[in-house]
Structure formats: C-alpha cells, structure tokens
C-alpha cells in the first residue's frame, strides 16, 4: 500500500507523480478507516511527504503499525536532518526501512546517516534516480564510494512510481560499470528486482513491471487508485470491500502517456550433447536460489508454488543426469539450498548472454 500524506515537497525529482498544484493533507481518520476495511497488509510505504510534527508522525505510524507487517519511509535525502530531530519516534520500532531518494546531490550527509544507523534498528538505503545522461553518471560515481563505505543498500531506478520511459536502471548500471546483471528474482515496492554488482558491491535494479497488480495508492486528497496516474479513482468514503478488491487485484496497464517499445529477449539454453533445453523461468529460479540460499524462499520470490519448483528442478536434473541444487539436511545450515557446480555454470552462461545483449542495447 502506497500512501502520500501530502503533496507538499520541495524536492525536484523528474516526472514526480505526487506533487500537484495546491496543498492537500490526508487525515489520519481516513487512513484508520481504510485499514479497518482492508485488515492486515504486507507493506505500507509512506512516500515523499514533508516531515511533520512529532505528534502527527507518532500517531500516524502507530495507526499503520497496527495493520502492517512492515512500514517503509521514502524520503528525499534532504530530509535527513529533520529525521534526526525525531529519531526517538523511529526507535519505537514502527519503521522497518528508510529509503532516501537521491537525484542531483553530489554529496551524501554521511554524519547524519551514520547517526541514524547507530541509534536505531532500521534498514537504510539510497534510491538513486537513473537518468540516462553524463551528469547523472558522474553524480552516482561521486556518491557511490560514500554509500558503499556506510554499507547502505543501493536501489537504482526511475523516480519512484513515475513510470518514465527516459530512465532505464539496467542501461544506467552498465554505464556506471555494473557487472553480473542477473534476471529479476523477486519484487519489492511494486517493482521487479534484478541484482548487479558495481566494484563487487551489490546493487538492486528496480525494473517496472509490465502491468500493475497488488498495489493500492491513497492520495493526499483521500482518493484511492492503483497508481498516482491512474484514471480510475474512488473517494475513500465511497470505497466498499468490493471496490477495494477491484483496485488491488485487477491488473492495470502502466499509465504511460506515449508508446514505449521494450525489447523482449527470450533466450533458451540447449545442452549440446543431450539436447536438453533450459527456459528463462528455470534460470530465474536458479538465480533466486543463489541469492536466497533457500529453495522455498526462491519459489515464493518468483511466484511459483514450492511443489512446482521441486518438480521443475528434479525433472531437469533427471534429463541432465546431474544435480543442480543441493539442500543441507542437518546441522546449523539445515534447510539451506545451494547451486551445484553445474547449476552455477548454467547461470553464468545465461548471464554472459544477457549481459552482452544489454551491453549492445546500452550503446
């Protein structure tokens, strides 16, 4: 669930879908009533709103915490000092993740972030907006060493939820030295995630999905929609449980204002001696297993039932005559799964092919 408390923000993210003329601010009563209708929810994202008074934020987080498994804050990097003033609220345990959005800054407020890291148990990361121009590449290369030194998570993507066709995280990663770019292995914040490495440091590439699903957006005006740019909007007061289900679960095409043509490359690996074919979905599963070291988590992350995953891996192993995945049955690492040498070989072969394709597209 995506909540924009207010459309008042002094930051200048390109193609921002949240800032509008005039001012609006959602009431906590609206949020409380909506959450009562929905029941429990996986993740609530409070996005890009000015940091309000201690009492307002404390009460808001308390309302959300009662219904959400995780609460994430998306804030401009310029808000670190305001966040520090109220870090006692964050020490309450309400917030799981803080994502600072960076666009054109060439410096990271290192001392402020270090204080936040040392004073609370919360994951902190940087979402770097991936405009495809030389200025953006230089800015990233200037701030990357600091972010790496702090040990922060790095997300590379478009302005969050802007669905801009001028920002491609894969091309951006390649142009700033990204290597070992993998297949999408999971989803987060409504985006598909692909892993890449820059100077051996992991970064997450936030790739927009072809259609939107399982997302609910609440605007500062008290309107519910799939997305800030959606045409179909409903006032909270008019939304019953059936309307909520329709918004959340009905797939919706991306709200784009112009045609975008995206190359879809379907690469199948074929083992030369036995003629066994390995499709991209299976390779995506191998990618997820390598990242999570868990077959169950890997299956869940790519949306395949566990029994189907086991059957898919077992059938391929039978055809090849060798193990692809090894699962530890006892000891401290019980239940962990690892790719065999053959599994790693398949994954690396596929990565090289996809890297070459992406590299050519980025030229």
TrEMBL record:
PANTHER family named among the record's database cross-references: DNA-BINDING TRANSCRIPTIONAL DUAL REGULATOR MODE, TRANSCRIPTIONAL REGULATOR MODE
Protein name: Putative transcriptional regulator
Organism: Thermofilum adornatum 1505
